[in-house]
Amino acid sequence: MELPRCALIRQNFPRRGLAGVRAAVWEAVRGAETLNRLPAGASVAVGVGSRGIARIDEIVSELVACLKGRGLRPFLFPAMGSHGAATARGQAAVLEKLGLSEERTGAPIRSSLAVVPLGRTPEGIDVVAGREAFRADAIVLVARVKWHTDFEGKLESGLFKMMAIGLGKLAGAQMYHAFGHRLGLETVIRSVGRQVLATGRIAGGLAILEDAWHEVAHIEFLPPAGMEAREEELLDRVKSWMPRLPADAVDLLVVDEIGKNWSGSGMDPKIINRHIHGHVNPWPYAPKVGRVAARRLHPLSYGNAIGIGMADAVHQRLARAMKKRPTYVNGLTSGALACLKIPATFRNDRECLEALARSTGKLAPHELGLAWIRNTQDLTVLAVSESLLEEALARPHVELLRQPQPLEFDENGDLREWLGLELG
User: What is the pTM of this model?
Assistant: First the structure.
């Protein structure tokens, strides 16, 4: 089957990136009264997750330096539920591969899946938290505030979610997701977060906001008092920056890479308009997507191919890169079983795209609406077919980088890379 000609375009989203990330961390922490009240020599557990936050090594390193400058003794701990294959060693390795080694940050890593009980919420949820973190005199969390991939609410991903699913380790993540099916995940996150704050051990959290270019746009220290309300305000702000595909409907979406570093679900369901439980086009504000093809797994996902089941077809190298243990642990813990299913698998890109193109009902190449993105976190430069180009260019923030031309395949039938051409 003949595939459509495609053009290369760039979405010029507003740039909000900070000029000095380290200076922003210092400024955010400088007036933190909860930290100023800690006595010299106090130990501080700094919780960091597994997401691919821009310049996270600089942010954490500067935070550690600020804490040491106050005479405190910081250490890092993985604030993760089932990530890193749900092992202490695996979670420590995730931090190190993000550049958060002791040599880089100046703080040792203490990783354990052991937890301590923190009581029961009014909803009957037994709250637990990482033992290593609660052995410290105080806890500071570092988290990106953004929309959650699986539900809509006033409080989604951020410090409260980290206090629940991250701080709770595997045992907490399993329990909270189970309650989430009955009560809703936002309710669980709020309830558990409040219980954790009531212990008095949380000194605050460093909230990070990123713009549509995946650049750090805002850093703010949130003290325990008022954290919940302030995180809601920050979420509203970052949701207004959310990138979108530049078309109301796409017949075939090609995603270069999936991975935990791009999204907790491997691919952001609110970009590809899929649900982790298998629903198609559940988000009314997102462009409708007919078919999804995924090409590879990013190495920083460490074999966790959660989200593979949201694709309709994949390249065989993605299926082969999937490691069952970390993928199954993640999916079974979160209850996202549809994300574990291996879809139709093809030996090369040409076979995959031709098969999916036929299934759209658009048999003529000039009718097929195709879009090709790097990953669901980066929608700045992408390829679109001629049938989508006029609609995309009608949007004031979109510019043409390369005129339409046929997709190119190598001798193995795989796509020749296009999406880095604007950098050449």
Answer: 0.85
| pLDDT given at position 423 | 37
Nearest to 178 by CA among 275, 87, 269, 81: 81
Give the pLDDT of residue 420. 67
Orientation angle between helical segments 56-69 and 21-30, nearest 10 degrees: 40
In a domain, 291, yes or no: yes
Listed in order, strand segments (DSSP E) in 177-287 are 202-210, 216-222, 249-258
User: Does residue 213 fall inside a structural domain?
Assistant: yes
Amino acid at 304: N
pLDDT tens-digit series, residues 242-285: 999 999 999 999 999 999 888 889 999 999 999 989 999 999 99
**Where do the H-state alpha helices sit in 286-402?**
316-321, 324-334, 349-359, 386-393
Question: What does the longest C-alpha to C-alpha distance in the chain come to?
Answer: 71
Distance of alpha carbon 367 from alpha carbon 251, whole angstroms: 9
Residue 1: inside a domain = no
Q: What is the pLDDT of residues 125-182, one digit of tens each?
A: 999 999 999 999 999 999 999 988 888 899 999 999 999 999 999 999 999 999 998 9
Residues 265 and 342 in one domain: yes
Question: Residue 189 belongs to a domain with what CATH number?
Answer: 3.40.50.11440
**Interstrand relation of 202-210 and 138-144 (parallel, antiparallel or unpaired):** parallel
Q: Which domain holds residue 284?
A: 6-13+243-423
DSSP letters for 150-181 = S---SS-BSHHHIIIIITTHHHHHHHHHHHHH
pLDDT in tens, 83-113: 777 899 999 998 998 899 999 999 999 999 9
Domain co-membership, 43 together with 82: yes
Total domains present in the chain: 2
Residue 191 vs residues 129, 134, 310: alpha-carbon distances, Å: 14, 19, 30
**Can you read off the two tokens belonging to residue 402?**
């390369």
